[in-house]
């Protein structure tokens, strides 16, 4: 297993026709959905490779003795404004805007150069011709249009495009910056939680996202399990939140692990903008933006791990950052777990299902079988016991098509695309 | 009446404290966070470098290097140790 192939982010574009993945080696691979046509009735909207390019390279900051990984932390698509597609990709320090365009014609018949590029001798040219456009095999080119660098002292964990389609935010462990998509030499700092004395550091920013339709609102989550909603109209520096979301904790149940497992690894607004979802180590919570005191729904992802926290702390798994996502109608949510398992919850029926993304359990066009983890007592056939789970097989990144029941699941270095039928 | 039910979390905490008695009581506190903020830090110490170079005359240093180890002490850091890796020319397997 080459570690460079480990997928580090997955994201559908606004139409769902394109799916981008980023990996630890700094590469981006974009898949495109095949248009269903009479010629290929069985392709049923399969995703095939559309473009692949190297987005980031490894760097070394000699001034700070800091190694900068090329791993792509996040990809976010921009809304499509013309024939080309654009996306933002970021590693720990630098965000890049990439434009992906198609070329299916080329000009032939230049006067001053041959077809292979060699220059023609001007004295040999006796007649003038007009170059004509000829069809050529489709070529998809990716070019970096903007490089947003040198704005983050700490490691970037999130980027989010604003609903105004002109600005976006980038968040690192202690600060959040607001950028204009056209301007690379400046950004506004809108949140700064760095204490004057670093000894007093108690929490870091873990994720941030812009509200889907209110361009002045964004949220950021922390390592202490809290979420702050900020309004950019209130002040230039949004250090004081407009809303503060935290679930009250029973002090008697507090343990060494409490704060670590409460750390929020992902926050996502619902498409409606009415709710937001947070992922902590053991659960997914849905919050109503109108109620700060506690979440409205809590889903247990893998509660059986609570009695394994000691070993999960020792092997560092307790610090794994799982993401979560909504389906297009906000009726279902999905998140990953270990052993290549991922979980889906239907918010209306309260049904949940555990599925596995692995070669052994997925056949092309086969139906996925629900999986079950046995937590104690007698293990039934087909169940897997907690001690047999493979904690190296983590599903941290999943994505849901914005309109249809198509999901993308990244299992280490493999990408699975399932067209799921939910009743 | 004594409550005999101990939460699984507290059981796990007791296990951890038994294995690491020096573990601080503030787990989510600044130590952990500062370690997180310092990810990627790789130090070069010119004093160590020169001392190691002087020692090298006396003994043969192993050529094998550990990529992620802190480059100080006996090991002479070389430009190869610093992760200036060549850009990845291999196409991603997803594109294959």
Describe the fold and architecture.
The complex is a heterodimer of chains A (423) and B (96). Chain A contains 2 helices and 31 strands. With 423 residues, chain A is mainly beta. In chain A, strands 1-2-3-4 form a 4-stranded antiparallel beta sheet, with no helix packed on it. By secondary structure, chain B is mostly helical. Chain B is built from 3 helices and no strands. The interface between A and B is large, with 54 and 40 residues.
What Rg of chain B is obtained from the alpha carbons, in whole angstroms? 23 Å
Shape summary of chain A: globular
The averaged pLDDT of chain B comes out at 67
How far apart are the termini of chain B?
Answer: 66 Å
The total count of strands of chain B amounts to 0
Percent range for helical residues of chain B?
25-40%
- C-alpha termini separation of chain A: 37 Å
Mean pLDDT over all positions of chain A: 93
Question: Helix count of chain B, per DSSP?
Answer: 3
Task: Map the helices and strands.
The complex is a heterodimer of chains A (423) and B (96).
Chain A: E1 7-12, E2 18-23, E3 27-33, E4 47-54, E5 59-61, E6 66-68, E7 74-77, E8 85-90, E9 95-108, E10 132-148, E11 158-161, E12 167-171, E13 175-180, E14 188-192, E15 205-210, E16 217-222, E17 227-231, E18 243-245, H1 258-262, E19 266-269, E20 275-279, E21 283-288, E22 297-300, H2 309-314, E23 324-326, E24 332-336, E25 341-346, E26 352-356, E27 372-374, E28 383-385, E29 397-400, E30 406-411, E31 414-419
Parallel strand pairs in A: 27-28
Antiparallel strand pairs in A: 1-2, 2-3, 3-4, 5-6, 7-8, 8-9, 9-10, 11-12, 12-13, 13-14, 15-16, 16-17, 17-18, 19-20, 20-21, 21-22, 23-24, 24-25, 25-26, 29-30, 30-31
Chain B: H1 8-19, H2 30-37, H3 46-56
């Amino acid at each position: 297993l080459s570690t460079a192939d480990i997928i580090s982010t997955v994201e559908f574009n606004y139409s769902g026709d394109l799916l981008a993945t980023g990996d630890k080696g700094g590469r981006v691979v974009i898949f495109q959905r095949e248009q269903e046509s009479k010629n290929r009735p069985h392709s049923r909207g399969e995703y095939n490779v559309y473009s692949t390019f190297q987005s980031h390279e490894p760097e070394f900051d000699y001034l700070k003795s800091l190694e900068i990984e090329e791993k792509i932390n996040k990809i976010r698509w921009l809304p499509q404004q013309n024939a080309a597609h654009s996306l933002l990709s970021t590693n720990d320090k630098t965000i890049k805007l990439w434009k992906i365009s198609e070329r299916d014609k080329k000009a032939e018949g230049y006067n001053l150069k041959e077809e292979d590029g060699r220059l023609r001798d001007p004295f040999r040219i006796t007649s003038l011709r007009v170059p004509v456009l000829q069809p050529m095999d489709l070529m998809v080119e990716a070019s970096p249009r903007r490089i947003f660098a040198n704005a983050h002292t700490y490691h970037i964990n999130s980027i989010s495009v604003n609903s105004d389609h002109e600005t976006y935010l980038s968040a690192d462990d202690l600060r959040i910056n607001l950028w204009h998509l056209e301007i690379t030499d400046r950004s506004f700092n809108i949140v700064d939680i760095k204490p004057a004395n670093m000894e007093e550091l108690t929490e870091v920013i873990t994720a941030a996202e812009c509200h889907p339709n209110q361009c002045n609102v964004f949220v950021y989550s922390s390592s202490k399990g809290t979420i702050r909603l900020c309004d950019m109209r209130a002040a230039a520096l949004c250090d004081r939140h407009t809303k503060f979301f935290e679930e009250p904790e029973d002090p008697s149940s507090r343990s060494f692990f409490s704060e670590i497992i409460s750390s929020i690894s992902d926050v996502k607004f619902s498409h409606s903008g009415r709710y937001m979802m947070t992922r902590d180590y053991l659960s997914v919570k849905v919050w109503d933006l109108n109620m700060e005191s506690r979440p409205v729904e809590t889903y247990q992802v893998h509660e059986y791990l609570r009695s394994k926290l000691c070993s999960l702390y020792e092997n560092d798994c307790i610090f794994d950052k799982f993401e979560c996502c909504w389906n297009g109608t906000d009726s279902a949510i999905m998140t990953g777990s270990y052993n290549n398992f991922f979980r889906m919850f239907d918010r209306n029926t309260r049904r949940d299902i555990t599925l596995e993304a692995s070669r052994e359990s997925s056949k092309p066009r086969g139906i996925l079988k629900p999986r079950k983890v046995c937590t104690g007592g007698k293990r039934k056939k087909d169940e897997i016991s907690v001690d047999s789970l493979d904690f190296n097989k983590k599903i941290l990144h999943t994505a849901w098509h914005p309109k249809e029941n198509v999901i993308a699941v990244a299992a280490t270095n493999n990408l699975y695309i399932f067209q799921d039928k939910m009743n | 009446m004594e409550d005999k039910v101990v939460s699984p979390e507290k059981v796990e905490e007791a296990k951890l404290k038994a294995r690491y008695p020096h573990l601080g009581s503030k787990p989510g506190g600044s130590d952990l966070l500062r370690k997180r903020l310092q990810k990627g830090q790789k130090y070069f110490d010119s004093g160590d470098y020169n001392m190691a170079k002087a020692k090298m005359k006396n003994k043969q240093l192993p050529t094998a290097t550990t990529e992620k180890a802190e480059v100080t002490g006996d090991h002479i850091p070389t430009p190869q140790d610093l992760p200036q890796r060549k850009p990845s020319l291999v196409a991603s397997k997803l594109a294959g």
